[in-house]
Design brief:
By secondary structure, the protein is of the alpha+beta class. It has a single domain, classed as Nuclear Transport Factor 2, Chain: A. The chain is built from three helices and seven strands. Strands 1, 2, 3, 4, 5, 6 and 7 form a seven-stranded mixed β-sheet that branches. β6 and β7 form a beta hairpin. InterPro entries: NTF2-like_dom_sf, Rng_hydr_dOase-bsu.
């Protein structure tokens, strides 16, 4: 696993496809990037570095991600906005026992209707990725954002 250029390109494509999906507004695409038993956690950098478990969002299965999608589409009320992810090339830390451990920096730009675009969130992804018959999937995605504050509520996936 991850022994050649094509493998690294598959990892890079996973990151690009993820950003495209969460920027598209088609929220049903988002859970498909994860394994059935997965972790998706959005956490401030300070809590992560101190080993504190408190996270802004924490999901522990693909079904929980699907519930979040339902909430976004059916129950959450908020000012609509667009988001655009800018994601660095992934850094491959190691491949161990069929799992890829990687990270990438990200910036999310938010644009509300009739307003200027602003930086909404910035940080890094810490990922554990596995190969499945359907391609590479996230077994764990930790979204570690740099600021202690987020401007308003976090509705859409980062």
């Amino acid at each position: 696993m991850m022994t050649n250029f094509n493998d690294w390109m598959a990892l890079t494509r996973l990151y690009a496809d993820y950003a495209s999906a969460v920027d598209s507004g088609n929220w049903n695409l988002w859970p498909e990037f994860f394994t059935e038993q997965c972790v998706y956690r959005v956490q401030p950098r300070e809590n992560f570095e101190r080993g504190f478990p408190l996270a802004t969002l924490a999901f522990e299965s693909k079904q929980m991600l699907e519930d979040r999608v339902y909430g976004i589409q059916e129950t959450l009320f908020h000012d609509p906005y667009y988001q655009r992810h800018i994601v660095s090339a992934p850094l491959l830390h190691k491949v161990d026992d069929g799992r890829i451990y990687s990270e990438a920096n990200y910036v999310v730009i938010r644009t509300k209707l009739s307003q200027l675009s602003t930086v909404f969130n910035a940080g890094r992804y810490l990922d554990e990725i596995v190969a499945t018959p359907d391609g590479l999937k996230f077994a764990s995605r930790l979204v570690i954002y740099d600021s202690e504050m987020i401007p308003n509520s976090l509705i859409y996936p980062i």
